[in-house]
Design goal:
single chain, 224 residues, mainly beta, Jelly Rolls, eight-stranded antiparallel beta sheet, six-stranded antiparallel beta sheet, globular
Amino acid sequence: MQFRSRLLPILTLSFALTGFYCFAADEITKAIVPNAHIDLFNGKDLTGWTFCMRGGADPTNTWSASDGLIKCAGKPNGYIRTLQDYRDYKLTTEWRFVKVAPKADNGGILVHVQLPDKVWPPCIQCQGKHGNVGDLFLMAGAESKEHRGMDANTPLAKKGEDAEKPVGEWNTCELICSGNSVKVFVNGRLMNETTECTISSGKIGFQSEGAPFEVRKVFIEPLK
């Protein structure tokens, strides 16, 4: 009993640090299909989220929660993601760029993020690059009918003109993840769609890749 009592604080600290840097977090759980509205951000802190940062960088220098917002500094590269897996849902995010600059104008919304964590994991990214919001990237080996045969670094280009609002204004992105298809709406306009995706469930996340941005809402709902 005495040995156990001495060991417990050490194990607790070890698990806390592992979860904090998110390199060995291995939460393999059954994907949730929502049957009601689920807020993924509680408006106060990053409970329910974890991180993966390039080079083992301290995520608290990149990600924070205050004033009812998730805040991303944009550097270094990495991502924040949910602990839980989800499938068959409508994801809504409200976000805005704080500022953009040449070669510092990028981010992204990630769905179907697969383990193990790495920069970058297999997932589907709704491009967050300024002026290209709505492009779809099939990342790290993920594929789809429309993307198959294309170079891995080539996105499925958005349909039509840019629907992004000016820097500093709030954008609404909606991703309809139904079975093995993903539709993307930007500020109410259908911008992209891909089908027969090789991944159809996983974590939900945001990408840090250059531009500082803020998120005020992120929630999922059942499909209609």
